[in-house]
């Protein structure tokens, strides 16, 4: 007997559970089947199934069991029921009902075993999760089910992700002198999920279903199960992620060497803020440490600019820099034909001497103009014959030359504030987008380090740091007992990051609005990266800039790359997100791609696909063709398969909160750019409400669908998703507060569009640590020589006291808040000061860990370990904030579980707002107990859908119509408030209070449709009503997930608590959550 089709799919013309024509033919009945179907619904040989397995030889079940032999033996052949008087095709065969039922039972059992085996194969052969993460582990098999679940379907791909802890590197595969084995139709690379036939001489593509001939050099016999005998000897047949060594056919020129061109702004703002010195030192440190990849193949060049472009000749044995100035910025040309981009190994000393001399060469500059656009053109002319990466260091947007973008942040004052804000989030011109497209043709990418200094200080000495009085007077350490200020040190933290010139010369003339949106497209279209350091100063931001320069230069990078993401038939890629230039309809052009870079794609069912052509799994393959830093052309292939289902509960249980939130982020950013930021926020909130309503599975023991217990535990997944969305709304990407400028928002969008998922989660869900209640082990080394971190605490100010010090980090920044009553012993051990007023925020970070106290050294070790963990991809600079400082709100804005100005909801209240809760069962109210008509508010809606009555709460009144516990029965007032709160929170009533025995005040939740407190009217019930007391009804409906109007009956304190009931609920069709 042949096993059934996998995944329970129904062959054409057949019904589930009944024998089909192909099945009947095995027993001598039915017409011949000219083209049987394969395991994935692809045309295949009648003797092959999934992954090359032969029929009946699947490891999950034997080919012929005695039970199946008995069943098939009971089904007579068709000739037994045919008569000689009739033609053979005039009468359909008849089968006894008992035999048909037995066959259906065996088929169902074999289908279940086949599904289990298929899931095991997917877990074994899929690409690892750090390469590909899908939003769900089960995809809907129809458009109607897809719209019902509201989930964004897609995957997040990080093709060059570093291997996870304990995992080996991606194996390399070489096909020798032969061609790479690929599908002749869709160009899919060979992978573990193809189906083998004809004893291994042909294979069926798992994406398009085409049968391909196996090359002669790649042929190998198959075993009795139809699988290749060398399956586990070839990584491409047993692993979802491989790297193929590409033959010469995949090269149009010799492999590109790693090339870095440093383009540095040397105008007055850059020099005065310390950008030139920090950039040169960061580059030089990376070169001295041999952090640049490529060994002898690496090439470097240096170009600087202000109102002119400056080229530096880098020759072997050169001792002094040679500078060639080109002032014709509108007609740029190269002053030299060589020695501008040179091999690093041969000219290392010349490069280092030039970098060391640059700050001194331009220290006395007085030029405030810069020609960044023309300088980019000059850098392109230097490196276009090789390709590579341009590292741009800029302190201000261009003011002259080519590609000058001019717009003011407050222009078009006739428009509304929202329109102006939306306009400032978009590029003012297409100049840098067009430039980026041109650079991709030369295989050049641009990494931008935008470091605008703060607006000018009133005097050079205003931003110079003076330590407090000597230790004899203040408790300061002796290392800081010099240069006392004439009128005391700087007070507070308002001077942090002021962009001042630390050498006391001409102060920087900074910019308050850089217009990042107009220049970010250059990094976007060249697959580069943008880093933004507002109010830059060397003292405050120099360490972060230098650490991130080293990270950019040293991480794993692919050169002159292209990538395609292919999906199986019946599906299509609807949207692509990340940093790339899309050539044609599906080709990602990536001049460079690094290990920290990720891409996301949204998937949709293809409505134009041929009916029946969709397989019962989705196969996806991401193929990246690139040159590694060693000069080898490689093809990184990741194959990932996701089964389809028609069970809504399976989809809900398989949701990945992190990947789902990442796709929601991409869609909300797109919507914000097309419309306005408020629409993006509304999209996130409304979609979160829909997901909570559609995906929340019944509680264990109350399932209405008979789901297995393993499918009923998605409550934690939904809570995790809600927390991520709430963190997204409270982050600078969507927070609507004055501290988030347009430049900061654009920068956040650019960074979040392509960072790894781990960085996204850290950004939305920071970690909070207490530093003042440690034991003896925190900050010390464990047995594996790793620093022991203290446990994190909830992200709420309720976890904090003014006697403590707390550290919060989100992968981008690290803030240390010190309470005003922190013990002086802790301050002395960690910072070396005896009182909080002597702790200067700017100098405190540098003095951390320099005391001889064990606690201070352990604190420094803990902070250094966090910075080391987060260095990929960003370096977290430490900022010290004292309680009461002007920038204290930066710390509390990161407490995601607290109310913030942009979203005044705690996490518990946010869950209640979006509807993540388990409602008590509702019992229809008897007609006799309905409220009198005169107490009902007439509704404009023609048909209420539901009229119900239930116990008031499941806390003190468990079950249906049960009395309260004796402790609650004794006194009404202590219990009524929690009861009211539990009930009304489900109706978006945020607060309830009892002013008297007969008066209850309710305040509407901010998410309700009304913007103020709901108007409740009190009317006296007839004296003959059973409960007596007061009747309350809402005169304004609360619109939230169908709940439109409620009324409740209040009772006197002497009445039993069991009489407190939700008396009248009227349900309307679902309405959207009001903004």
The number of helices is: 27
For the record, what is the CATH homologous superfamily label of one domain? von Willebrand factor, type A domain
Q: Assess the beta-strand content as a share of residues.
A: 15-25%
Mean pLDDT: 73
Number of strands: 36
CATH architect. name of one domain: 3-Layer(aba) Sandwich
Alpha carbon gyration radius: 35 Å
* Gap between N and C termini: 61 Å
Indicate the CATH topology of one domain. Rossmann fold
Shape: globular
Keywords: Cytoplasm, Endoplasmic reticulum, ER-Golgi transport, Golgi apparatus, Membrane, Protein transport, Transport
InterPro entries: ADF-H/Gelsolin-like_dom_sf, Beta-sandwich_Sec23_24, Gelsolin-like_dom, Gelsolin-like_dom_sf, Sec23/24_helical_dom, Sec23/24_helical_dom_sf, Sec23/24_trunk_dom, SEC23_SEC24_subfamily
Subcellular location: Cytoplasm; Endoplasmic reticulum membrane; Golgi apparatus membrane
GO molecular function: SNARE binding; zinc ion binding
Structure description:
It is found in: Cytoplasm; Endoplasmic reticulum membrane; Golgi apparatus membrane. One of its GO terms (biological process) is COPII-coated vesicle cargo loading. It holds the Pfam family Sec23_helical. It is a single chain. 27% of the residues lie in helices and 19% in strands. The chain is of the alpha+beta class. The strands form seven sheets. Strands 2, 4, 8, 17, 19, 20, 22 and 23 form an eight-stranded mixed beta sheet that branches. Strands 9, 10, 11, 12, 13, 14, 15 and 16 form an eight-stranded mixed beta sheet that branches. The protein has a six-stranded antiparallel beta sheet with strand order 29-30-36-35-34-33, with no helix packed on it. Among the domains are: 124 residues, Immunoglobulin-like (Sandwich), CATH 2.60.40; 64 residues, Roll (SH3 type barrels); 220 residues, Rossmann fold, CATH 3.40.50.410; 130 residues, Severin. It contains 27 helices and 36 strands. 46% of the residues are buried.
């Amino acid at each position: 007997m042949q096993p059934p089709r996998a995944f329970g799919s129904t062959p054409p013309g057949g019904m589930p559970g009944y024998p089909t024509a192909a099945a009947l033919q095995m027993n001598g009945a039915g017409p011949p089947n000219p083209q049987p179907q394969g395991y994935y619904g692809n045309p295949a040989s009648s003797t092959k199934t999934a992954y090359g397995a032969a029929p009946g030889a699947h490891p999950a079940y034997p080919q012929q069991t005695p039970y199946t032999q008995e069943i098939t033996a009971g089904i007579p052949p068709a000739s037994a029921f045919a008569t000689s008087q009739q033609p053979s095709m005039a009468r359909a065969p008849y089968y006894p009902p008992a035999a048909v039922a037995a066959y259906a039972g065996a088929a169902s059992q074999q289908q279940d075993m086949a599904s289990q085996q298929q899931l095991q194969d997917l877990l074994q052969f899929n690409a690892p999760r750090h390469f590909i993460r899908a939003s769900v582990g089960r995809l809907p098999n129809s458009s109607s089910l897809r719209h019902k679940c509201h989930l964004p379907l897609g995957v997040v791909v990080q093709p060059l992700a570093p291997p996870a802890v304990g995992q080996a590197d991606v194996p390399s595969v070489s096909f020798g002198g032969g061609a790479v084995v690929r599908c002749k139709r869709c160009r899919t690379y060979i992978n573990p999920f193809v189906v083998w036939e004809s004893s291994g001489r042909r294979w069926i593509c798992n994406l398009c279903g085409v049968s391909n001939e196996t090359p002669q050099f790649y042929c190998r016999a198959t075993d009795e199960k139809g699988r290749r005998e060398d399956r586990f000897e070839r990584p491409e047949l047993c692993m979802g992620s491989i790297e193929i060594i590409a033959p010469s056919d995949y090269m149009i020129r010799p492999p590109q060497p790693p090339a870095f061109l440093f383009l540095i702004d040397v105008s007055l703002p850059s020099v005065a803020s310390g950008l030139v010195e920090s950039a040169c030192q960061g580059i030089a440190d990376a070169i001295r440490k041999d952090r640049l990849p490529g060994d002898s193949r690496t090439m470097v060049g240096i170009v600087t600019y202000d109102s002119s472009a400056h080229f530096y000749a880098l020759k072997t044995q050169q001792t002094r820099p040679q500078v060639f100035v080109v002032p014709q910025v509108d007609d740029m040309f190269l002053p030299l034909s060589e020695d501008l981009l040179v091999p690093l190994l041969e000219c290392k000393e010349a490069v280092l001497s030039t970098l060391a001399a640059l700050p001194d060469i331009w220290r006395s500059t007085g030029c405030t103009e810069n020609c960044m656009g023309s300088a980019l053109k000059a850098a392109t002319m230097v490196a276009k014959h090789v390709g590579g990466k341009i590292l741009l260091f800029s302190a201000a947007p261009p003011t002259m030359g080519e590609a000058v973008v001019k717009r003011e942040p407050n222009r078009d004052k006739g428009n509304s504030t929202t329109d102006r804000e939306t306009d400032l989030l978009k590029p003012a011109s297409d100049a840098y987008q067009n430039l980026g497209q041109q650079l991709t043709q030369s295989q050049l990418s641009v990494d931008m380090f935008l470091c605008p200094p703060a607006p000018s200080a009133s005097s050079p000495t205003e931003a110079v740091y003076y330590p407090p009085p000597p230790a004899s007077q203040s408790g300061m350490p002796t290392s800081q007992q010099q240069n006392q200020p004439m009128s005391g040190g700087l007070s507070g933290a308002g001077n942090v990051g002021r962009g001042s010139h630390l050498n006391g010369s001409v102060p920087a003339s900074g910019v308050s609005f850089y217009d990042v949106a107009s220049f970010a497209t250059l990094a976007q279209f060249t697959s580069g990266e943008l880093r933004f350091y507002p109010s830059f100063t060397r003292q405050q931001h120099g360490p972060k800039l230098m650490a991130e320069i080293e990270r950019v230069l040293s991480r794993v990078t692919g050169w002159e790359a292209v990538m395609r993401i292919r999906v199986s038939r019946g599906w299509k890629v609807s949207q692509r997100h990340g940093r790339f230039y899309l050539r044609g309809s599906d080709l990602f052009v990536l001049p460079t791609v690094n290990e920290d870079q990720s891409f996301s794609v949204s998937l949709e069912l293809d409505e134009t696909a041929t009916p029946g052509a969709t397989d019962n799994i989705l196969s996806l393959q991401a193929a990246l063709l690139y040159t590694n830093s060693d000069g080898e052309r490689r093809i990184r292939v990741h194959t990932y398969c996701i089964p389809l289902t028609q069970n809504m509960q399976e989809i809900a249980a398989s949701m990945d909160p992190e990947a789902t939130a990442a796709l929601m982020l991409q869609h909300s950013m797109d919507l914000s750019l097309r419309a306005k930021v408020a629409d993006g926020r509304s999209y996130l909130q409304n979609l979160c409400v829909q997901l909570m309503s559609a995906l929340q599975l019944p509680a264990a023991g109350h399932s209405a669908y008979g789901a297995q217990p393993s499918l009923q535990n998605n409550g934690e997944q939904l809570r995790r998703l809600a927390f991520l969305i709430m963190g997204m709304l409270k982050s600078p990407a969507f927070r609507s507060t004055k501290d988030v400028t347009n430049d900061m928002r654009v920068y956040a969008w650019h960074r979040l569009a392509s960072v790894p998922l781990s960085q996204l989660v850290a950004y939305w869900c920071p970690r909070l640590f207490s530093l003042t209640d440690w034991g003896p082990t925190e900050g010390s080394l464990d047995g594996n020589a790793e620093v022991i971190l203290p446990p994190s605490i909830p992200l709420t100010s309720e976890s904090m006291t003014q006697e403590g010090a707390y550290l919060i980090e989100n992968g981008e920044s690290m803030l240390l808040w010190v309470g005003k009553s922190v013990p002086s012993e802790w301050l002395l051990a960690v910072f070396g000061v005896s009182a909080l007023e002597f702790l200067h925020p700017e100098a405190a970070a540098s003095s951390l860990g320099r005391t001889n106290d064990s606690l201070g050294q352990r604190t420094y070790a803990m902070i250094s370990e966090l910075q080391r963990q987060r260095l990929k991809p960003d370096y977290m600079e430490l900022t010290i904030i004292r309680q009461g400082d002007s920038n204290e709100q930066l710390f509390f804005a990161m407490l995601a579980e607290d109310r913030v100005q942009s979203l005044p909801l705690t996490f518990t209240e946010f869950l209640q707002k979006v509807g993540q809760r388990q409602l008590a069962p509702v019992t229809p109210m008897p007609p006799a107990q309905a409220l009198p008509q005169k107490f009902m508010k007439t509704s404009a809606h023609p048909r209420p859908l539901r009229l119900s009555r239930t116990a008031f709460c499941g806390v003190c009144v468990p079950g249906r119509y049960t009395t309260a516990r004796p402790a609650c029965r004794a006194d009404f007032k202590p219990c009524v408030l929690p009861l009211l709160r539990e009930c009304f929170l489900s109706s978006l009533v945020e607060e309830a209070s009892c002013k008297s025995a007969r008066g209850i005040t309710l305040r509407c939740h901010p998410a309700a449709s009304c913007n103020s407190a709901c108007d409740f009217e009190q009317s006296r019930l007839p004296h003959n009503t059973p409960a007596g007391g007061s009747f309350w009804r809402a005169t304004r409906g609360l619109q939230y997930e169908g709940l439109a109007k409620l009324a409740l009956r209040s009772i006197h304190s002497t009445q039993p608590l069991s009489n407190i009931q939700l008396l009248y609920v009227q349900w309307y069709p679902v309405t959207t959550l009001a903004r």
